[in-house]
Design brief:
heterodimer; A: mainly beta; globular; B: 5 strands; 19% helix; 28% strand
């Protein structure tokens, strides 16, 4: 098969893994040593593919770096890749998400940052501009930071309709635009916020991650701060989707591509007990759009596993059969090369894994 | 009127300052400040500027600036006035894990 590349963002830099069979891996790094890499993307819409890294050095601040030679060299726009405009009254603290747009719009890249704001690039991720409408949203004073910071961590451009984009933030919840970012509306009907007196507010939910189905763009899966929800109407309404899960808390969620693909979750015990259930590394898989989940953890540790998988550390590749990958805060990366049927450890002893992305390279 | 000052950088910032750890800078005007120095250097080394100050112009939290040995945060901040032959030293604070 073709070569697969894994990009692993950690608390102290980026590590790259390469494999021709997804069994034996060669690792190199760290790139951007000492920068917390919470966002990484492998943009395969262009040739050669572009690596995008959102890093934050504790001393020297955040930046987006790009590489068109698989990490041999890195570029950063001299004017600053990503920054609030003068007058916004804010500074970018951290880049939480880098999301290439659809294939049909090859220069479009989205970024979600802390404090919660959305940026768009029209030059392949070299420079970004603030979405002013979301920044000026009257709800913004009510968006408050969760434990990780006040972050916009999910950007889901619609694959077929450039006017439609969904974002999610912690806290704040899900917002959508249907006019290419000119206006934004909350889209949380049915998503609970158990930490409020009114557990079903219009907005303010602590949504941890949302993923879109690869075949039906109106089917979405949402890992909430307490609760897993699905939507079949593009996010207009959400329904509980927890059948078969041992717990409904967690961060990471992903979807293997194609009509035979599946959704994957990594549940944690509870808000007040952020550990895998009963110390077991449990991955759960749904092949019916979230109606039911089943255990898909063969090969993962059965006990003594007390680390967690963060919101962007559960991902897939586009090989056939699909690969699924998870990174842990204890510096391990595990992979499945059979759509989650079995798992093996790919690397260990890295710094805390913050995000993982995978791509099949030409 | 002008004063000549030296900006000294930690080695990890040399790659965004043309490979140099020490920059000799001539500042013009009356009572030039640390902020004037950083503004001037920003025009030549924009990546260095991004490392030292946020987009709203604030010194980054864990960047310490010493003017002739004194932490400017305990003095006038970036409004600290620089005299002839002043040495401005950038040092990363103790941070991280």
């Amino acid at each position: 098969m073709a070569q697969v590349m894994l990009a692993v963002g950690t608390k102290k830099g980026l590590f790259l893994g390469w494999s021709n069979d997804r069994d034996d891996w060669e690792w190199e790094g760290p790139h951007h040593a000492m920068a917390a890499v919470a966002a990484v993307a492998i943009d395969t819409r262009r040739s050669p593919e572009r690596l995008l890294v959102g890093g934050r050095n504790e001393h020297w601040g955040p930046a987006v770096f790009t590489s068109d030679d698989r990490g041999a060299s890195w570029s950063e726009d001299p004017g600053g890749s990503i920054a609030f405009p003068a007058g916004a009254g804010a500074d970018v603290e951290q880049i939480w998400q880098l999301m290439p747009g659809p294939v049909s719009r090859p220069d479009e890249v989205w970024a979600g940052v802390e404090p919660s704001a959305l940026f768009r690039s029209d030059d392949g991720g070299r420079t970004f501009a603030l979405n002013q409408a979301l920044w000026d949203h009257p709800h913004r004073p009510d968006w408050h930071p969760g434990a990780g910071g006040q972050c916009l961590h999910t950007v889901l451009p619609h694959p077929d309709d450039a006017s439609r984009v969904m974002v999610a933030m912690s806290t704040g919840g899900v917002y959508v635009t249907e006019d290419a970012g000119e206006s934004w509306s909350p889209s949380n009907k049915g998503v609970l916020a158990p930490f409020f007196p009114d557990p079903e507010p219009e907005y303010g939910q602590c949504v941890h991650k949302v993923v879109r189905d690869t075949e039906d763009p109106d089917l979405l899966m949402l890992q909430n701060h307490g609760g897993v929800f699905r939507s079949v109407d593009g996010g207009a309404t959400w329904q509980s989707a927890e059948e078969g899960l041992p717990a409904n808390f967690g961060f990471g969620i992903t979807r293997t591509p194609g009509p035979e693909g599946a959704f994957f979750l990594f549940p944690l015990s509870a808000d007040m007990s952020r550990f895998p259930v009963e110390g077991r590394a449990g991955v759960y898989r749904s092949v019916d759009g979230g109606r039911a989940w089943s255990d898909s953890s063969a090969g993962l540790p059965e006990s003594g596993f007390h680390t967690i998988v963060l919101r962007d550390a559960l991902t897939t590749d586009a090989a056939d059969p699909a690969g699924v990958y998870l990174g842990t805060r204890s510096g391990e990366v595990w992979g499945s090369r059979d759509d989650g049927a079995s798992w093996h450890q790919l690397v260990s002893h890295l710094p805390d894994v913050l995000c993982v992305r995978a791509a099949v390279l030409p | 009127m002008s004063v000549r000052v030296t900006l000294e950088l930690p080695s990890v910032l040399a790659d965004v300052a043309g490979g140099r750890r020490s920059l000799a800078v001539e500042l013009h005007g009356t009572d030039p400040t640390v902020g004037d120095l950083l503004d001037l250097v920003a025009g030549v080394h924009p990546h260095l500027e991004r490392r030292l100050r946020t987009e709203s112009g604030q010194l980054r939290r864990h960047v310490n600036v010493y003017a002739d040995g004194a932490d400017v945060r305990g003095a006038g901040g970036t409004a600290t006035v620089l005299g002839q032959d002043a040495v401005v030293m950038i040092l990363p604070s103790v941070a991280g894990g």
